[in-house]
Design brief:
- By secondary structure, the chain is an all-alpha fold.
- It has one domain (10-35, 59-281): MetI-like (MetI-like fold), CATH 1.10.3720.10.
- It is 75% helix and 0% strand.
- It has 11 helices and no strands.
- It is elongated and about 75 Å long.
- It starts with a helix and ends with a helix.
Length: 282
């Protein structure tokens, strides 16, 4: 296993998408980790006399209309994005994978019920779900996490069902059933390990989409609320000063774009490295 991991690492270093995506993702994670112990200025530190200052030696990315340091807010906003995305993707995995695995194992009306539930959930995108939840409970990070997580459930349910159905047709599954293993045991011991790579790749992609959705919800005022830092809220604040201080929108916009790009490239690279067919094709 150790030798296989080393071989995959060597292939990954030769894979352009995996390498670029991995580097961008590492920068994103490092920035978030660093912000937990240090930022150039306090995230909520206001300097009215120094508001709307362009990038300089004192403030590398400038200050906003309250005099807050843009770099510090971007660093802190990365932590918020990671937390929201992790929990939202966790909800999708925790609920969607068991549902999809159950649908593949049982078939019949159980599979049909899970698929119709997925169709129903897909009819309510994360943004629309967030609006409905906000109308009932009010805006906030928790409600945006719930909305994004609910949208992720049918994604993983459909993916798990489709991948698991192909595994259930394999000869080693028939051998396991002949040996007396039940559906639950076969699913846990044989089916899920064989579709884990597919789920990992999809989780990476959904993580990027969750960050993008959180930024969109915060931009609309439905997500993370002040004084907590959020890239989407920074874009919302920047639109008033678009011509006076365009850097207010450029820097958080670039942070969102580069992070989502890095995670998508990483997901594409993982797909190529974990799929034996694609590895042989390369």
């Amino acid at each position: 296993m150790f030798e296989a991991s080393r071989e995959m690492l060597r292939e990954g270093l030769r894979h352009r998408s995996f390498l670029i995506g991995g580097l961008l993702t590492l920068v994103f994670l490092a920035m978030a980790a660093l912000s937990l112990v240090w930022t150039p200025y306090g995230v909520a530190e206001i300097d009215v006399a120094g508001k709307l200052r362009p990038p300089s030696a004192a403030h590398w990315l400038g200050t906003d209309h309250f005099g807050r340091d843009i770099l510090s807010m971007i660093m802190a906003g990365a932590v918020n994005s990671i937390v929201v995305a992790l929990v939202a993707v966790g909800i999708g995995l925790g609920c969607g994978v068991p549902l999809g695995a159950l649908a593949a194992a049982r078939g019949g009306w159980v599979s049909e019920a899970v698929m119709r539930f997925s169709d129903f959930a897909f009819a309510f995108p994360a943004l629309l779900t967030a609006v409905m939840i906000t109308a009932l409970l009010g805006p906030g990070a928790v409600n945006s996490v719930i909305a994004i997580g609910i949208f992720n459930v049918p994604v993983f349910a459909r993916l798990t069902r489709g991948a698991a159905l192909s595994v259930w047709q394999r000869e080693f599954i028939l051998a396991a059933r002949v040996a007396g293993k039940g559906q639950a045991r076969v699913t846990v011991e044989h089916v899920l390990p064989n579709i884990a790579s597919v789920l990992i790749v999809q989780a990476t992609i959904q993580f990027a989409l969750a960050i993008l959705a959180e930024a969109g919800l915060s931009y609309l005022g439905l997500g993370t609320q002040p004084p907590a830092a959020s890239w989407g809220k920074m874009l919302n604040d920047a639109q008033t000063f678009m011509f006076q201080a365009p850097y207010l929108a450029i820097f958080p916009g670039c942070a969102i774009a580069l992070t989502v790009l890095g995670l998508n490239l990483l997901g594409d690279g993982l797909r190529d490295l974990l799929d034996p067919k694609l590895r042989r094709a390369r």
